[in-house]
Amino acid sequence: MSGQRVKVAVLGAGSWGTALAKHMADQGHPVKLWARREEHAAAIQKDRENARYLPGFPLPECLSATSDLGAALTDVEYVISVVPSQSTRDVWKEGAGYLAAGVPILCASKGIENGTHDMMVTVLKEVAPGHPVGFIGGPSFAKEVAAHLPTAIVIGSDDEPMAQTAQDLMSCDWMRAYFTHDVIGVEIGGALKNVIAIACGCADGLELGYNTRSAIITRGLAEITRCAVRLGADPVTLAGLAGMGDLVLTCTGDLSRNRRVGIGLGQGKQLPQILEEMGQVAEGVKTTLSAKELADKVGVEMPITQEVYRILYEDKPVREVVLSLMRRSLKKETH
């Protein structure tokens, strides 16, 4: 754990971005938090709190908020990118030119880009070439990180010095960071757990009980692992923090936005109504589209993901989805 102060930019002032900005500032690092909307940045700066996305957590004086992307990325030594996954490419197309050569980028946006099916590290390497890139995974609700509750994360990067630097910067008395070279495993685990969390939420909305939830988590982990391995990941990664750890948290925790989407669907609400009531991005909704298309493209069987896609994009009733999954042909557990 380093005592050196590092100038940090955090892009994205939602709950997770704000929590990570606070996390770094609480360790004494000067932080610039970028918000897309000028009025949002101004409110954070004035109130010393993100009242919309992370209320109740005062922000340290060494944290400043801005809506000026150039100002956020100029004269910084480290960047944490927490822009929603479907906006990451566009934001960084503009932002990369402001960033000094060689400044590392640590991505905390868990999703798969629609259309290209690219993971976030791939996107960042394309639009911000020459910068070491890593990815944060693992079970980490924003409010609990902001509250300094003990949390373990994992950082995936094929650049070991970058990963070790990120590990050192992120670790403190309330956060322990591990690292791995298996970037694909960490990214796939982080993205696809949101899809499975929607499925778990649907079951909870229907009040189907703990047996059902446990089955969805377990079989969900099986299909996430199949997909990750097909793309070159180490299956052991999916048994760790980025796989099982994040999956269990997101499928069971009341703070999970994706689980809340599923609960609403299970209760008979329409998706637009659910998202409007939440007022925040639920990455799993758009990731489901990418995940379904990716599974079809690489030939991986992902029945839960396929059925979540049918709920979200084909308006298939949730109770019919349950029967479709239960009536699938019988087979061995591992194959």
Comma- or semicolon-separated keywords:
N-(1-d-carboxylethyl)-l-norvaline Dehydrogenase, domain 2; 8-stranded mixed beta sheet; 2 domains; 335 residues; globular; 8 strands
Tell me about this structure.
The chain is an alpha/beta fold. The protein folds into 2 domains: 8-181, 3-Layer(aba) Sandwich (Rossmann fold); 184-326, N-(1-d-carboxylethyl)-l-norvaline Dehydrogenase, domain 2, CATH 1.10.1040.10. It contains 16 helices and 8 strands. It has helices spanning 15-26, 38-47, 69-73, 88-95, 120-127, 142-146, 160-170, 183-205, 210-230, 235-238, 241-252, 257-266, 271-278, 283-298, 303-314, 318-326, and strands at residues 8-11, 31-34, 63-66, 78-81, 105-107, 133-137, 151-156, 175-180. An 8-stranded mixed sheet has the order 3-2-1-4-5-6-7-8, with helices on both faces. Helix 8 (183-205) packs across helix 15, helix 12 (257-266) runs antiparallel to helix 13 (271-278) and helix 15 packs antiparallel against helix 16. The termini are far apart. The mean pLDDT is 95.
Name the helix and strand elements from N-terminus to C-terminus, one letter apiece: EHEHEHEHEHEHEHEHHHHHHHHH
Distance between the termini: 42 Å
The number of helical segments is: 16
Helix content: 40-55%
What's the mean pLDDT score? 95
Major β-sheet annotation: 8 strands, mixed
CATH class of the largest domain: Alpha Beta
Q: State the low-pLDDT regions, or none.
A: none
Structural class: alpha/beta
The proportion of strand residues reads 5-15%
Provide the gyration radius in Å: 19 Å
Secondary structure: number of strands: 8
- CATH fold node name of the largest domain: Rossmann fold
